[in-house]
From TrEMBL:
SUPFAM superfamilies, A to Z: P-loop containing nucleoside triphosphate hydrolases
Domain FeoB-type G residue range list: 4-166
UniProt feature coiled coil, ranges: none
Cellular component GO terms held in the UniProt record: plasma membrane
Subcellular location: Cell membrane
Record: residues binding Mg(2+) 2: 23, 25-26
Organism: Methanocaldococcus bathoardescens
Residues engaged in binding GTP: 11-18, 36-40, 57-60, 117-120
UniProt entry keywords in alphabetical sequence: Cell membrane, GTP-binding, Ion transport, Iron, Iron transport, Magnesium, Membrane, Metal-binding, Nucleotide-binding, Transmembrane, Transmembrane helix, Transport
The name this protein goes by in its record: Ferrous iron transport protein B
Transmembrane segments: 286-303, 340-365, 385-407, 419-439, 451-471, 509-531, 546-563, 575-594, 614-634, 646-668
Length: 669
């Protein structure tokens, strides 16, 4: 085996970095977290001409200013780990915006290669890029490709294998700042310890008032000599630009503008499809109104298409439970398998098709480009509730799962903004609550399933916004920041990408069904056949009089008086307790506590609840304690104090909302 090299992939969000990473590495992927932070670390490997290449996928960033955790991770890796090659993935349809990061990488002195992705889209938009001229101006290798269509990947591997050996450290000049940069570097080079860094990079970052670099220089031998020189330069630049760092930003964009004018030719006068659609879909009023039918169609598609598949799974698990009971003579083992594991997991997996088609529809909208517009449209409303613009993205992600959504809040620079976003995120209805809604909607609102389920999502979002406004006004008294989001061009979704994204999300659900949910329903089963007096027998699962003496009944009956205004029996109360393990466990717990399989649970729920008590139960399930995984990630991101605060306010909020629904509902109906 030949040499092993380490390369890093970096680029703006939505440039196709993940697609290129997957195309290079295939299945050889390792996922973890970067040391000390919750930012996902993805690594992979590939071989080319007998040599091995370790590929590190850095977080998607617009710049390396290092204001957010993602930017800090990317900057620290490049500076400290010094990879053999940095592959900067650039969107060919948005060269001007993407080159800002490229210039910063050149400033750092990285051995750089430009992967010019989405060339097929650029051609469709009649954008011509002179690749040879771009390569000559920048002094770095440029590889044109289309990752989605798998065009140029082999050429990229070939150029990577050459670039790791034939290293080129290109330098970009900033005409108005060169005298200052030279003056600072001439002093920095007097300290041998600083030569492990790129001195030009240190000089530029000092002009930007970068605290990280400033701390490095303050501990050096040349700080006393440099300090008065730097103060003089900063004073001079402040007169010219107001703030020195703004001058650097302006200078970068002047250089980028010159490059783009030389290498890009675009036929003008023709409106693109994206421009025409955005005139309507991102309009402040029309876009917001169109969002409602889009979401309605999303849920309509999900439930109508998934229905026959759910019915099939329901019958399969009912059949398996009967087979196990009839073939195993030991009642304890037979009941554990049939009433515990099979019935419990079956009661949850019956919703697998619903989730699969929901994720398919979401992935379809994401790959089409429309999903990126939803945060953009919602941002105008969000700021009115005291939320930072960037909070829109974690909140939208929360509809899938609160755990990655809370982690996504790390891109919010301001700590107070980030805490507010994390605290309200569990109020957004994740996919785990959907089985609960689907069960009760089918049982008691069969004619209005879609509307009832959408109302839960709407309730969660409305309460999240109101809560954010209250936190902003009474706890954190600062102004929110604004959203900067990329709007990718619309295009026909690629089926392979849609299916891959769907599978990754569905796999998370299956993994939970195979681990934590099995644990949850098994625990409920054990607590149902045992009580304060000892072992009650598996007959307890089919005999209401026996199960009334179990530990489950003790828990439920203790809570029942508290929830008596809502009209819930002790079994419903017990199921909510076990829902803390994972929200999906609520359905499996109800199936076990009522002693029925999934095929009969809907009918039994219709008898045990009224429409008002069912709606209150759904609302409480939406708002009360987050699952264990969500609670753990809140603690990890902002600490135990805020995690306990989240638990407290969510329980109080859930109870108050369920009580209001019950009182008003019973008065009206």
């Amino acid at each position: 085996m030949g040499n092993k090299y380490e390369i890093a992939l970096i680029g703006n969000p939505n440039v196709g970095k993940s697609t290129i990473f997957n195309a290079l590495t295939g299945e050889n992927v390792y996922i973890g977290n970067w040391p000390g932070v919750t930012v996902e670390k993805k690594e992979g490997e590939f071989e080319y001409n007998g040599e091995r290449f370790k590929v590190v996928d850095l977080p998607g960033v617009y710049s390396l200013t290092a204001n957010s955790i993602d930017e800090i991770v990317a900057r620290d890796y490049i500076i400290n780990e010094k990879p053999d090659l940095v592959v900067n993935i650039v969107d060919a349809t948005a060269l001007e915006r993407n080159l800002y990061l490229t210039l910063q990488l050149m400033e750092m002195g990285a051995n750089l290669l430009l992967a010019l992705n989405k060339m097929d889209l650029a051609n469709n938009l009649e954008i011509e890029i002179d690749v040879d001229k771009l390569e000559k101006i920048l002094g770095v290798r440029v590889v044109p490709l289309s990752a989605v269509k798998k065009m140029g990947i082999d050429e990229l591997k070939k150029v990577i294998s050459e670039a790791v050996k034939d290293k080129k450290f290109a330098e970009i000049k900033y005409p108005h700042f060169e005298p200052y940069i030279k003056k600072i570097t001439s002093i920095l080079q007097k300290d041998e310890n600083l030569k492990k860094y790129n001195l030009r990079y240190l000089a530029i970052k000092l002009l930007e008032n970068d605290k990280y670099v400033e701390d490095i220089i303050k501990n050096s031998k040349v700080w006393d000599e440099l300090k008065p020189v730097l103060d003089s330069i900063m004073k001079e630049l402040s007169k010219k630009y107001g703030e020195a760092e703004l001058g650097i930003v302006e200078e970068r964009y002047k250089v980028i503008d010159k490059i783009v004018k030389e290498v890009v030719k675009k036929k003008s006068g023709k409106l693109t499809t994206t421009q025409m659609l955005d005139d309507v879909l991102t309009d402040e009023k029309i876009g917001a109104l169109l969002l409602i039918p889009f979401i309605w169609m999303l849920f309509k598609f999900t439930f109508d298409v998934s229905k026959p598949f759910s019915a099939m799974i329901e019958h399969i698990f009912a059949f398996l439970a009967e087979v196990v009971k009839s073939s195993i003579s030991n009642k304890f083992i037979a009941s554990l398998l049939a009433d515990g594991i099979i019935s419990g997991v079956g009661a949850v997996l019956v919703f697998f098709p619903i989730l699969a088609f929901l994720f398919f529809a979401l992935s379809f909208l994401e790959d089409s480009g429309y999903m990126a517009r939803i945060p953009f449209i919602a941002d105008r409303v969000m700021n009115k509730f005291g939320l930072p613009g960037k909070a829109v993205i974690p909140l939208v992600m929360g509809f899938g799962c609160n755990v990655p959504a809370i982690m996504a809040a790390r891109t919010i620079e301001d700590e107070k903004d980030r805490i507010i976003t994390i605290l309200i995120n569990p109020l957004i209805s994740c996919s785990a609550r959907l089985p609960i809604y689907a069960l009760f909607a089918e049982a008691l609102f069969s004619k209005y399933q879609g509307i009832v389920i959408i109302s839960m999502y709407a309730l969660g979002l409305i309460l999240a916004l109101i809560t954010a406004a209250l936190f902003r006004n009474f706890v954190f008294k600062t102004s929110p920041s604004y959203l900067i989001v990329e709007l990718p061009p619309y295009h026909i979704p690629h089926l392979n990408i849609v299916l891959k994204n769907t599978w990754e999300r569905v796999y998370d659900f299956l993994r939970k069904a195979g681990t934590i949910i099995v644990f949850g329903v098994t625990l409920v089963w054990l607590l149902s056949i045992y009580g304060p007096s000892g072992y009650l027998g598996v007959e307890a699962l089919e005999n209401p009089q026996i199960i009334a003496n179990s530990w489950v009944a003790v828990i439920g009956k203790t809570l029942a008086p508290i929830f008596s205004p809502m009209g819930w029996d002790w079994k419903a109360c017990s199921a909510l307790v076990f829902g803390v393990i994972a929200k999906e466990v609520v359905v499996g717990s109800l199936a076990m506590l009522y002693g029925v399989g999934e095929e009969n649970l809907s009918n039994l729920i219709a008898n045990a609840f009224t429409p008002v008590s069912a709606f209150a139960f759904m609302a409480f399930s939406l708002l009360y304690l987050p699952c264990i995984a969500t609670l753990a990630i809140i603690k990890q991101e902002i600490g135990w104090r805020w995690a306990l605060f989240a638990v407290t306010y969510e329980i109080v909020l859930a109870y108050v909302v369920a009580l209001i629904i019950s009182v008003i509902g019973n008065l009206i109906f």
